[in-house]
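Re: that backbone. Tokens:
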């Protein structure tokens, strides 16, 4: 069942680009995750083409099973291992090749990890796994609260002040929760065919959402009241992002990215790629944009010129589920770009020249989500194997 469910989820990610949905399998009841410290588990190499991750199995294992303690049920945070020390330095181009997976949060095999988000102060990591959203406190990553979302949440976003957490559901719902209590602030059906992206504006007043109905919508972040909508085009909207320091929203639609002014909703500029885009991210300065597409390509764009600076092959795959680039993110200082792929790897690139610095065999069958901590000391990756891995740069 697990293998069939994973195949369906991978296929749905690809079909999302053309506004279609694959079927999903009803999930068994969720089990408590295990949080385990691990030894050096994955080799970081600057090899240009990392091999695909191994096929999924019905049990989740760490990259180095012999180095792990025996698994025991995690009944409460008190049964979890002691805190793991934070790394000495932020992840940078100088130490990216030394990244090591030092800790895992493990879920049941059917609890696919869909999305990750760090709180702005870096104290908590939000994880969407199965139909629940968990909050895990750094640096021990003990579970501090569990939100029963009741639906697969394909995207998460924290409010700029950290007080709220928004989620996008595959049933089309957009929900906003109070971070401290897990209380539902407001929820509504936003996209009839499924919601796939959420983002708070830099000032925290707006919440943007995108869905399989090819529409991006704006909401009042505090009340959930609708404030406007923008027709993306003929395809689904798998990703969107507010440009730092600007009142504009970048919206993905097929191979196009359209900037719209959030007040007038008029188009400010358009970027055109060669293949259907699935994910995008701005660098902190707001002058660079990264995209990942369905053909295995990662691009870094010069926004002022509207041209790609670098076209980077995430893997050797160019067609099929393994080629899909699920996520791209910049490091907090903008010096690094990380990409997550359907081949199960995480690639790290130097933004200044597009050089590949590391290739991590992270998950099987696909790495679905990535998130840098705000201080740059952790890189979290989530996969369709039901595992979240925390990566550190060790001397």
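Recovered sequence:
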């Amino acid at each position: 069942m697990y293998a069939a469910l994973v195949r369906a989820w991978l296929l749905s990610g690809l079909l999302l680009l053309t506004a279609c949905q694959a079927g999903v399998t009803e999930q068994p009841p969720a089990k408590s995750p295990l949080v385990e410290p691990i030894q050096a588990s994955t080799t970081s190499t600057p090899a240009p083409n990392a091999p695909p991750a191994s096929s999924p199995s019905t049990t989740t294992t760490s990259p180095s099973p012999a180095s792990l303690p025996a698994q025991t049920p995690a009944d409460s945070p008190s049964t979890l291992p002691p805190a793991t020390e934070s790394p000495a330095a932020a992840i940078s181009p100088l130490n990216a090749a030394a990244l090591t997976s030092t800790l895992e949060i493990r879920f049941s095999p059917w609890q696919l990890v869909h999305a990750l988000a760090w709180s702005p102060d870096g104290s908590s990591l939000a994880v969407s796994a199965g139909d629940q959203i968990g909050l895990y406190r750094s640096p021990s990553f003990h579970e501090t609260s569990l939100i029963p979302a009741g639906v697969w949440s394909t995207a998460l976003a924290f409010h700029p002040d950290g007080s709220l957490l928004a989620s996008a559901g595959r049933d089309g719902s957009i929900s906003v929760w109070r971070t401290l209590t897990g209380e539902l602030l407001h929820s509504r059906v936003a996209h009839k065919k499924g919601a796939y992206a959420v983002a708070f504006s830099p000032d925290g007043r707006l919440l943007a959402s995108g869905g399989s109905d090819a529409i991006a919508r704006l909401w009042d972040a505090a009340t959930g009241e609708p404030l406007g909508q923008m027709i993306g085009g003929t395809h689904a909207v798998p990703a969107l992002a507010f440009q730092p320091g600007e009142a504009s929203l970048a919206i993905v639609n097929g191979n196009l990215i359209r900037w719209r002014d959030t007040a007038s909703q008029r188009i400010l500029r358009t970027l055109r790629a060669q293949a259907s885009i699935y994910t995008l991210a701005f660098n902190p300065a707001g002058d660079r944009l990264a995209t990942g597409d369905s053909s295995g390509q990662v691009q870094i764009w010069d926004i002022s010129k509207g041209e790609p600076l670098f076209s980077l092959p995430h893997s050797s795959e160019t067609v099929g589920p393994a080629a899909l680039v699920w996520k791209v993110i910049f490091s907090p200082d903008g010096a690094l770009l990380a990409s997550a792929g359907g081949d199960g790897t995480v690639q790290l690139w130097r933004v200044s020249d597009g050089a590949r610095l590391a290739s991590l065999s992270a998950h099987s069958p696909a790495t679905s989500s990535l998130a840098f901590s705000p201080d740059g000391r952790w890189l979290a990756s989530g996969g369709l194997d039901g595992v979240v891995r925390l990566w550190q740069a060790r001397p």
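Residues 1-31, 39-84 have pLDDT under 50 and may be disordered. The first strand starts at residue 34 and ends at 37.
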